Amino acid sequence: MPLFDYAGYNAQGKKVSGVIEGSGRRTVLQLLKNQGIVATEIVQQSVAPKGRRGLPAWLTRRRIPVNDLAAATRQLATLLGAGIALDEALATLAGQQEKPGFAKALTQTREDVVQGQALHQGLARHAHIFSELYVNMVQVGESSGTLDQVLHRLADFLEEQARLRSRIQAAMAYPVLMALIGTGVLFFLMAFVVPKVTRMLEDMDRALPLPTQLLISTSDFLSNWWWLLLLLMAGALLILAQYLKTEAGKMGLDRLKLNLPMFGKLNLLLATARFTRTLGTLLRSGVPLLAALQIVQNLMGNRVLKQVLEDTISAVREGESLAQPLLRSGIFPKMVSQMAAVGEKSGELEEMLFKVADAYEHQVDSTINALLSLLEPVMILLMGTVVGFIVLAILLPIFEASQGIG
């Protein structure tokens, strides 16, 4: 149904405005009247259901940065904790947002709340902003009467996820920049410098050293057959993309991510930290274990780990403890199952999961630092070797010629 912007006055004579959904102006007028609002202006929004310029909505939606979502969540928790009504808190929050999409989602959620829906139901309509974990935690907070406390926990969780993501992005920025610059330098040398120099060397009418012959052959091949290389690369990428669309290809790629040298360990540590912190956050908020495991399974991006969690859910449903299927899987580190077993025995499972998450997030930082300390010299060594080979191949015949003249 279309959305309408409205302005008017409530039963207390205060000026109000917002967004409401209805099949037409008459329906909207009646809905507002039922809420005790006398409308002075009703304007249908011009945004087409399919998004800007006729594109599907999923192409025009923008993800909200985790930091912004965490800040808004904490503000909402603070407002509710101060005794402000939910609809007023949502209106205040919407008015503070700089991103129109986020403000619109909060405004529509407020309208749903005013019309009698629960907060989690309004949030669920905006799945591109509020994840399943977010909606479920809000639902638990509403049902238990501790919504402000749950929102504070949710904000803590989102801030921790944002911190970890920023740490990884900052750590990978330097190696990516080095790789791009190195590739650009090599392309410039091979495309513009080497061909001119090699033509000069060939005109010397002398037997050229092996490194120089290899450089000339490589330069000639790249100059004459660059289009073939591009075609082969494009074909290989197309075949790979088609394979990765199959279930076997997706599973194979996710398995490769966990088995890659150096990076496989980092991927597993990241997934383990996210799994334990998310599960601990859900359990602390009052979500039952089976429901929490299902939510975490849907949030996992790796199909191998999703399969492990699916087996874990089946085992827990049949009466096993959480620790046993995790240990049998052989995928997650043993520390996870050991700490889960201790937590189940002591009745403090969520606390044990948070300790595991803290430990592995610290290990992620250490692993990233170790990888960076290794990647930087390796990249410099590779670049130095290639550039050194080019310089050597160019200078060798010049040195030989100068010795012959002498």
List strands and helices in order, with pairings.
Layout: E1 3-9, E2 15-21, H1 25-34, E3 38-44, H2 57-60, H3 66-81, H4 86-95, H5 100-114, H6 119-124, H7 132-144, H8 147-202, H9 210-244, H10 247-259, H11 263-284, H12 289-299, H13 303-317, H14 323-329, H15 334-346, H16 349-405
Describe it.
By secondary structure, the chain is mainly α. It has helices at 25-34, 57-60, 66-81, 86-95, 100-114, 119-124, 132-144, 147-202, 210-244, 247-259, 263-284, 289-299, 303-317, 323-329, 334-346, 349-405, and strands at residues 3-9, 15-21, 38-44. A three-stranded antiparallel sheet has the order 2-1-3. Strand 1 and strand 2 (15-21) form a beta hairpin. Residues 46-61 have low confidence and may be disordered.
Q: Can you identify the CATH superfamily of the largest domain?
A: Type II secretion system (T2SS), domain F
Looking at the structure, the CATH topology of the largest domain is Receptor-associated Protein
Based on helices, strands and strand pairing, what is the structural class?
mainly alpha
Determine Rg (CA atoms, Å).
30 Å
Biggest pleated sheet: 3 strands, antiparallel
Distance between the termini: 90 Å
Annotation, overall tally of beta strands: 3
Number of domains in the coordinates?
A: 3
- Lateral strand order in the biggest sheet: 2-1-3
Q: Element order, helices and strands?
A: EEHEHHHHHHHHHHHHHHH
CATH second-level architecture of the largest domain = Up-down Bundle
Strand fraction: 5-15%
CATH class of the largest domain: Mainly Alpha
